[in-house]
Write a structure and sequence with these properties.
alpha/beta; 8 helices; 6 strands
């Protein structure tokens, strides 16, 4: 009894998302696959892994800060609408970060049919069906991430010329969770040391409320609102009134007003919307990235 539907879906995943149910970003995936041909192929990376860029960027050390994979944490399976880390709360609100960041087995009570003794003949049909249910559930979990793609966005930190440049893409809180609070203590310490010394921060997800955790912002030691000689630069790609903001009470405008205020106060702030800034370096960064 081979389940044809199961085989079809496995083939779908093996063929780089070519199938009847296409993900929302299929065109982007096809484009990336085309770019990767003849250049070493695709690299699927996660927190703490090698970036695969070592041969492409000589002299540049690249750290993968995120995303975590499902073995490290399952928090990336869903997206929060409210959180203490979001730029939607009053300044007096609690900033305590909650979440154990731990991971549990997907199906802890599942028991292999090969354990200890062979399955009695009268139960084999039922066991086979249970295996099929579990396989279907695992495949569904894989596809769940199609609806939470920002949780799989790469967070890269580059070390070059004595500076640290942070590019978090569209990563939001569930992605950052592991790097900031959930990883093993030794790795958390090393990651914190990297993030504290960031010189340039490419503001995540166009300045949305959920993509720059307050814990991360509080880590930056180069902020000029902390040190008169602080030299932190922040660059942001955005356009007001494009996303969110329909209901002021939702605090959903992009970029988030409270976040922009903090960025301007604590850093040399540059945006595509204003195309202004205090030096040519960040203007160049905006144009290129």
């Amino acid at each position: 009894g081979v389940n044809r539907d199961l085989i079809a879906r496995l083939g779908f995943l093996a063929a780089d998302n070519e199938g009847e149910q296409e993900p929302a970003n299929k065109s982007a995936i096809d484009n990336l696959n085309a770019m990767a041909k003849g250049r070493g192929g695709n690299f699927y990376v996660n927190f703490g892994s090698e970036s695969g860029l070592e041969g492409v960027l000589p002299g540049v050390k690249t750290h993968v800060i995120g995303p975590p994979n499902l073995t490290q944490t399952d928090t990336i399976l869903s997206e929060a609408h409210k959180h203490e880390e979001f730029w939607m709360l009053r300044a007096s609100a609690s900033r305590t970060f909650r979440g154990d960041g731990g991971a549990a087995p997907l199906f802890p009570h599942f028991r292999s049919s090969s354990a200890e003794q062979r399955t009695p003949p009268h139960a084999r049909w039922f066991v086979r069906r249970l295996h099929q249910v579990r396989a279907n559930q695992l495949l569904e979990i894989v596809r769940v991430l199609d609806d939470a793609m920002n949780n799989t966005s790469l967070i890269l930190l580059f070390e070059v010329g004595g500076r640290k440049l942070l590019f978090p893409g569209d990563a939001q809180i569930e992605n950052w969770n592991y790097a900031l609070k959930g990883a093993p203590a030794k790795e958390l310490k090393a990651t914190k040391a990297l993030l504290e010394d960031v010189s340039l921060y490419k503001v995540g997800h166009h300045g949305s409320r959920n993509a720059t955790p307050r814990t991360l912002w509080d880590m930056f030691k180069r902020r000029r609102d902390r040190n008169p000689k602080g030299d932190l630069r922040t660059v942001i790609s955005t356009r007001a009134d494009k996303h969110g903001g329909k209901n002021p009470e939702d605090h959903s405008e992009v970029p988030r007003e409270t976040l922009v205020t903090a960025l301007k106060k604590g850093s040399k702030y540059f945006s595509t919307q204003e195309l202004t800034g205090e030096d040519e370096l960040c203007k160049t960064m905006i144009i290129k990235f």
